[in-house]
Amino acid sequence: MAKRLIEPNTTLYPVPVVLITAGIAIPNVMTCNRIASCSAEPPRLAISVRPIRHSHLLITMTREFVVNIPSPAQDILTDYIGVVTGNKEDKIATAGLKLAHASFVQTPLLADCPVNIECVVEQQIELDSHTMFIGLVKAVHAEERLLNDNGEVDFARAQGIAYDSAVVRERPTYNFSVDELRTAVALVK
Ligand SMILES: Cc1cc2nc3c(=O)[nH]c(=O)nc-3n(C[C@H](O)[C@H](O)[C@H](O)COP(=O)(O)O)c2cc1C
Questions:
Q1: Could you identify the atom of ligand 1 that is nearest to the CA of residue 35?
Q2: 10 Å Cβ neighbour count for 30?
Q3: Region 18-186: CATH code
Q4: Distance (Å, rounded) from C-alpha 127 to C-alpha 50?
Q5: What separation in angstroms does the CA of 150 have from each of 109, 139, 144, 153?
Q6: Is the pLDDT of residue 24 over 50?
Q7: Is the CB of 34 under 6 A from ligand 1?
Q8: How far is the C-alpha of 21 from the C-alpha of 69, rounded, in Å?
Q9: What is the pLDDT of residues 39-89, one digit of tens each?
Q10: How many angstroms is it from 70 CA to the middle of ligand 1?
Q11: Of ligand 1's atoms, which has the minimum distance to the CA of residue 171?
């Protein structure tokens, strides 16, 4: 099969899409697909966030963030959180998301997501368009139904994760209705 040279970009497959909570006094949430596992002992995750994002300010101030993994039923929610800024709207209230206390960090978890990973920022690396925050994983919360016999999260038991990990959809166009968002949240219960 013939191949074509396309513009340099970060094409990868699969692409995890997660919801990052940040902020303690007034928490916010943003969608993020620039996320990678970057060490095992101890475990670390790296996320890259544009400096213009409200979440960037919150992570820089608090030096912590929580990675919340959405389920497939939360696709629309994930779109919404990825196109609206917390600078202008309280996304958590609009979508009717429930927060839960974390066990180590002060940033709250999204109770509606089946997996939550608490991280403390160890390093901040400026990479032109984005800042990469390297987070030391301090705690992982996983719904019991997702755990296999070894106590590991098996995403097959969750029917995958939001977006099916297949496409980078950084600019979804969608007319969100609050009812649809809340239905998406409720579907996961
Ligand atoms: C699928 C998807 C993935 C995204 N990934 C990132 C990302 O990795 N880094 C980033 O800075 N913005 C990313 N965005 C954009 C932010 O989520 C979006 O600008 C959001 O409104 C920022 O919210 P905030 O200003 O409340 O922090 C993504 C959006 C979508 C829909």
A1: 8
A2: 25
A3: 2.30.110.10
A4: 9
A5: 24, 17, 12, 9
A6: yes
A7: yes
A8: 11
A9: 999 999 999 999 999 999 999 999 999 999 998 888 889 989 999 999 999
A10: 14
A11: 31
- Residue 153 CB less than 6 A away from ligand 1: no
Contact 22, 118 (CB under 8 A): no
Q: Is the CB of 54 under 6 A from ligand 1?
A: yes
Query: Ligand 1 in contact with 131 (CB < 6 A)?
Result: no
- The full 3-state SS of 21-32, as one line of letters, equals EECCCCCEEEEE
Does residue 157 contact residue 115 with C-beta atoms inside 8 Å? Answer: no
Q: Give the separation between CA 162 and CA 24, rounded to whole angstroms.
A: 25
Global pTM?
A: 0.89
Which atom of ligand 1 lies closest to the CA of 50?
11
Cβ-contact 55, 8 below 8 angstroms: no
Three-class secondary structure of residue 54 per DSSP: helix
For residue 186, what is the enclosing H or E element?
helix 178-186
- The pLDDT, as a whole number, for residue 187 is 65
Atom of ligand 1 nearest to the CA of 31: 17
Q: For residue 16, which of 85, 123, 113, 91 has the smallest C-alpha distance?
A: 113
- Residue 171 CA to residue 176 CA, distance in Å, equals 14
Token pair belonging to 96: 């009717």
Q: To which residue do tokens 């095992």 refer?
A: 40
Residue 105 near ligand 1, beta carbon < 6 Å: no
Establish whether residue 116 lines the binding site of ligand 1, counting it when its CB lies within 6 angstroms of any ligand atom.
Answer: no
